[in-house]
Amino acid sequence: MSKKLSVLMLTMVLLLTVALVGCSKKDELKEAITKGTANVTKLSSYELKSQFKIKDLSISSNSLPAIQNAFITDTLKDADITLDGVYQKEPLQSEMTLGIHLKGNYSTPYTIPMVVTKDKLYVKLPDLPSYRIPKKAIGKFLEIDPKQLAEQSGSKFNPEIMDPTQVQKLVSEVVSALLSEYDQATYFFDINPKDAKLPQGVEAKQVVQFKVTNDNLKQAAGVFITKALPKAIDVISKDEYANMFQVNKEKLAEAKKKLQSNTSEVSKKFNNLTVKQFDINTALDKNDIPMYQDLNANVEWNDPTSKDNVKLFVTGYMQYSKINEKTTFKLSVPTGDQVLTIEQLQKMKTVAP
User: Fold this and answer.
1) pTM of the model
2) Integer angstrom CA distances of residue 294 from 21, 135, 149, 220, 310
3) Among 42, 118, 132, 328, which residue's beta carbon has the most beta carbons within 10 A?
4) Domain presence at residue 31
5) What total of structural domains would you count in the chain?
6) What domain range includes position 226?
7) What is the predicted pLDDT for the residue at 242?
């Protein structure tokens, strides 16, 4: 074999090796989450499925009667909240179905479908006795016009607030601001996808865990209060976000200043908190999309002064699927007699249901 041919073959092998390594290369842990969150804003469509469950809850508060403590605990313990949805960027449309499932002696399931278009929000009215929704209105979609509501309140309407992409962009920048202040070696861990207990169908290139323990809680709280939160406030204070959400920038600046001048007092409150478990696992696919995230938060709050005690154990997950595929909506944009305006609903409430 000639030297030229040998060199050529060796070069091709090296290039192939570099290409393969490049395809499977894992990002630095913080960078992976930051990049993944930003990539969600670039998606043209997806389906979303999420669930959060209160696995354990107990409340003992001297500021509330014992019967209220018992009512809250019995109502919310084992409760779960689900949110399933479909999103498409062009033309802008999304739908969501919110499920609220209460257990215990007050077991009541609620399902609330919603449809979002470029300029309207439609919410299907459920049978909620406490809100006294007229029977004729139950099952119809309440049409909410954010522009009209803004005009009635004397504020300006920014249509970007209706675009989930813009909201996700804000979330991305806030996440980046928060994570940038946390030490990677202390709070971030690389989890083998085989050990991450991912649901069937989720093929992850990388799984990153953000974890706070009772040992580093005080340090984590200090970072959050003195560095991460002020940096997040700066993000929200940007003109594009302050205008979109009609946020008063002066009040944000005042809140930041107050926080920075009372960091020691705020930090003391975390001395009453005990963390048994707090971790967030993010599974990224080969395209650096955070297709699956799960949360485990098991904490206790014991205030020696007020004698208030709270135990809370929450688990949850969020999963993206059918990314950038053709969307299939289960709910169509409601029309005709399916729709009620706010004014029509108010008139119906003035007469017997």
Assistant:
1) 0.82
2) 28, 39, 36, 20, 23
3) 42
4) no
5) 1
6) 37-349
7) 86
